[in-house]
Amino acid sequence: MKSRLIYDLLNNSSHGLMESMRKGSKTKLPSDLLAVLALMVLTVFFVLVPSFEKTAFRTILGLPVVLFLPGYALIAALFPRKNDLDAIERIALSFGLSIAVVPLIGLVLNFTPWGIRLLPIIISLTLFIFIMVFIAHSRRLQIQENEKFEVNFKKLYDSIKAEAFSKPENRTDRILTIVLLISIILAILMVVYVIVTPKQGEKFTEFYLLGPGGKAEGYPTNLTTGKTGSVIVGVVNHEYATMNYTLRVKIKEELLNEQHIQVEHNQTWEKPVNFTPLSQGSSLKLEFLLYPKFPTQKFKPLASSPVPSRI
User: Fold this and answer.
1) Would you place residue 7 in the very low, low, confident or very high pLDDT band (cuts 50, 70, 90)?
2) 263: which residues sit within 8 A by CB, 6+ positions away?
3) Which CATH number fits domain 204-309: 3.40.50.1370, 3.40.190.10, 3.40.50.150, 2.60.40.10?
């Protein structure tokens, strides 16, 4: 049954498209499919353009693109007739299939050289939605007007408007209608507020050291006086604000290196830090100290990572 449905889907899609091209018909893209494409393009714009990627619209537009549009486009391709599914089934399956399709796309990407990153995911979702919309439109072309599924936004708006603003039969109905409208508006505003202003978590800074090979091993433990050693230092900012740090490398009270670092929230600073020891001794402790802003007597190190060394 499944294979038959897929065969009919592809066969009817190609047949409908070729028939339309042969007749030279200039049918417009249905309003619901046009809205899907418009929302997808708008989301790509807000996600990839640097000046807009940090706005709240990225989250507001991204939610339906991940949770609804893939499933809706797939349902539109599989069931082009209005009698195939009712409205509630179509909406419910759109959410359910989106939750199934998006992880499958991520699973496929995991086995590709691109991996599961923002850009490959956006491109994959966009291609999937465009292909499904293309198939849905081509299948609707061969269906009679009175049978094909469509969403008439103007009629829907007029129906809601007539239902909401029509005069109730009595005062009680009028009050209940007003309360219902206010409740819906408040619920929408609360959802938007939660999305736009997410709750802040714990504020902290990650500080770590890696060996020259970029792994947590191979730290320099035998140093030669006057020769430069190197360690990769990483700082991750989770302070919900841009932070200025001071990094100091010391052996006892001897300052070997000092750097001033600025890291934006949720960003990582990771670079090799060189140092040249001048003192001699055994079992000396090479310290990497991270301070907020500039080190003074008021500020203790945010973190320290000692490396036992012999010079």
Assistant:
1) very low
2) 235, 236, 237, 242, 243, 245, 269
3) 2.60.40.10
